[in-house]
Amino acid sequence: MKTENNKKTIxxxxxxxxxxxxxxxxxDLVSHLKDEYNVEVGFxxxxxxxxxxxxLKEIGIKYHVIRNLKRKISFKxxxxxxxxxxxxxxxxxxxxxxxxxxxxxxLGSLASIFLKIKIIxxxxxxxxxxxxxxxxxxxxxxxxAKFKNKIICVSEFDRQAALREKxxxxxxxxxxxxxxxxxxxxxxxxxxxxxxxKLPPSAMFKIxxxxxxxxxxxxxYKTKGFExxxxxxxxxxxxNLHVKIIIxxxxxxxxxxxxxxxxxxxxxxxxILLGQLENASQILKAFDLYVCSSVKEGLSYTIIEAMLxxxxxxxxxxxxxxxLIEDQQTGILVDTQNAEKLAKQIINTLRNQELxxxxxxxAKQKAExxxxxxxxxxxxxxxxxxxxxxxxQ
Length: 393
Fold this sequence. Notes:
Pfam families: Glyco_transf_4 (PF13439), Glycos_transf_1 (PF00534). By secondary structure, this protein is an alpha/beta fold.
């Protein structure tokens, strides 16, 4: 509803407050729209300690912690979270509830029933696209889509997947690619110096003159496919290439298993899980090559950031990666869940400097033209205005 300042109110809801792609998306929207709308954010897991909460506080955005909202399915927590979400919506009286993440997509839609508000959902990669995902999520998305006014897909791949799986009618689906704000990249010598500073003094891993640095950024979830990158790393090392693979990201439950696997393969000197780094994108120019080994993606922010940094990229052909990467033009696409093929493509790319240079230039130009924060915000704002005008009519 419009408040005393005559602005529409938008309530953004997301399951967790740790910083990932969906959280970055919300932060970018609210930071750009806070002068035009009354914006508030609700989230559960990690609460006030999550990076999203900290960043929202810094720019003066009001947020609400939904105590029982957790990523893991739990009948008790989900039931309590449902009523907490409904109470929050009644309290804030938004014109629009903008949902993000699969769990909140379902709970938020159901909690909004009969409250006479418009509901938008941004699908940051459909959960049913994950390997071995059961049909529950597909059925739940189909059911909850009935209560949504618009579903934003961050890639055309996801929009087509929704149509194929009959999630909802075509008129409700729209593709709006993620956009990235300008990044103050550190130049290569400074970026490498910063990177070296972050290495644990006790680690076997060292960066030496002449090493080829391969980077990958993402929280340590199964969907990021880092085990395939580690396996590929072993194969690359066996080919006598002096590579160092640096994986940057917060533990998402896979850290211990991945570290154990690095030790079992005996590649501690060549591969490291560096943990979370603040403003990790700023040091991208430290790398010679960027790799995305994901088994599921929506539209990868980190690939766009690597494109803007002017890096050659090897990425798995999942989700919207094919909309970012034109094979052999703006990067290399490779089959997912296949360490051998990933290693082969990385080796071939590193041995072709001319191709690397061409792809890096093309990728930077494409990212600067098509994947800007301004374009993403403007298209999203148009959706807000469209559905609220429809409501008035």
